[in-house]
Design brief:
Layout lengths: L8 H5 L1 H14 L6 H14 L3 E5 L2 H11 L7 E5 L4 H9 L3 E5 L10 H7 L4 E4 L11 H11 L2 E5 L7 E2 L2 E2 L6 E5 L13 E5 L2 H10 L4 E3 L2 E2 L10 H10 L3 H19 L13 E2 L5 E4 L3 H10 L29 H9 E4 L7 H16 L1
Parallel strand pairs: 2-3, 2-4, 4-5, 5-8
Antiparallel strand pairs: 1-9, 6-7, 6-12, 8-9, 10-11, 13-14
The structure holds pyridoxal-5'-phosphate (PLP).
Length: 366
């Protein structure tokens, strides 16, 4: 049996340190925000090359509060990928704005800047690229486009901890960058967690207000905020994990390299880091029209796989108002039929990855 992802392995690797950090946090008597969260925010900001980090309750809230901090709301349009996880769209809907789907570049699965340009209207306020699967989106082209049209760039980096564009870390570009620490992400908490990073002190202050009832001074509320605070216990755990993140990403990259070497030549679309970028390899996603049969073959061989994602947002009942226009996004539809995520993670052994690759090759050779 080869699991898609071993969620317990990072804990076991760092058990003594994590146990000590959790015990220290429990004994501190401080259970909301406070020094542990502040220390994590400073360390994660430094990691991401950002001046500011604000810890939040989850990744969806990070996206929502980023849009609220930019005063995006009813009547506004926000450009989102047609092929993302639904959270990106839900954030736009939660603030009362309208998601405008744009198709990806088939090579990177990330927003195609040319198509984004064509989707801009007088109501467009922001562009929300997703660094999907850990591949940085084309931030240079999107930044230029946003500057030309006076738009905000809000990045969904929920899958891209440690990814980079040249020497710039993901987290250091754009107006505001949104993170999730859901347990399965490259940096995961022991429950829900999220954050924003930004170079803009004003935006950071606004998100810090919004996450805490719109209040900076207890019982003084200057706007209608939310309750979405990163828990200090998760901050304590992630402070132990963060120094290992880049080495863990390197182990992911070694698995991606092994897959690339063993799978090339098969009738299978393989992912590759776009030139000049460091991929975080959150997921290793292959494409084939025979996806369902390949997945069944791997399941029978005891190999866990997942599909990210089987139903595009515009085909979900939650977005039934898009159903009539669904044929406008054929690439997202094709990807939903063809993508398959192979086992990937820092604790997957190279021998296990080789066995996965052999099983995939066996499907095509039998
Ligand atoms: C995980 C994820 C989110 C949401 O994060 P949560 O912490 O689960 O709310 C948002 N966008 C993308 C692309 C994700 O993968």
């Amino acid at each position: 049996m080869i699991a898609f992802l071993d969620l317990k392995a990072p804990y076991l690797e760092l058990q003594a340190e994590i146990d000590a950090a959790v015990a220290r946090q429990m004994a501190s008597g401080w259970y909301i925000l406070g020094p542990e969260v502040e220390a994590f925010e400073a360390e994660f900001a430094a990691f991401a090359g950002a001046a500011h980090c604000v810890g939040l309750g989850n990744g969806l809230d990070a996206l929502v509060l980023a849009l609220r901090a930019l005063d995006i709301g009813p009547g506004d349009e926000v450009i989102v990928p047609s092929n993302t996880y639904i959270a990106t769209w839900l954030a736009v809907s939660q603030v009362g704005a309208t998601p405008v789907p744009v198709e990806p570049d088939p090579a990177t699965h990330c927003l195609d800047a040319q198509r984004v340009a064509e989707a801009i209207t007088p109501r467009t306020r922001a562009v929300m690229p997703v660094h999907l699967y850990g591949q940085p989106a084309d931030i240079d082209a999107l930044t230029a486009l946003c500057q030309r049209h006076g738009l905000r760039l809000v990045e969904d980096a929920a899958q891209a901890h440690g990814a980079a564009l040249g020497t710039r870390q993901v987290g250091s570009t754009g107006d505001i960058v949104c993170w999730s620490f859901y347990p399965g992400k490259n940096l995961g908490a022991f429950g829900d967690g999220g954050a924003i990073t930004t170079q803009d002190a004003g935006l950071a202050r606004r998100v810090a207000l919004l996450r805490n009832y719109g209040s900076a001074v207890k019982y003084v509320n200057i706007e209608k905020g939310a309750n979405s605070r990163l828990d200090p216990i998760h901050a304590a755990v992630m402070r132990v994990k963060l120094p290992h993140l880049l080495a863990w990403n390197q182990r992911r990259a070694a698995i991606a390299e092994l897959y690339q070497q063993r799978l090339q030549g098969l009738p299978l679309g393989l992912p590759a880091a776009a030139p000049g970028t460091t991929h975080a390899w959150h997921l290793y996603v292959v494409t084939t029209p025979q996806r369902d049969a390949l997945q069944a073959h791997l399941t029978a061989a005891g190999i866990g796989t997942l599909i990210h994602y089987p139903i595009p947002p515009f085909r979900q009942d939650a977005y039934r108002e898009f159903a009539d226009r669904a044929p406008q996004w054929p690439l997202a539809d094709r990807l939903a039929r063809e993508v398959l995520s192979l086992p990937m993670g820092p604790h997957l052994g190279l021998a296990q990855a080789a066995a996965v690759a052999d099983a995939v090759a066996g499907f095509f050779h039998d």
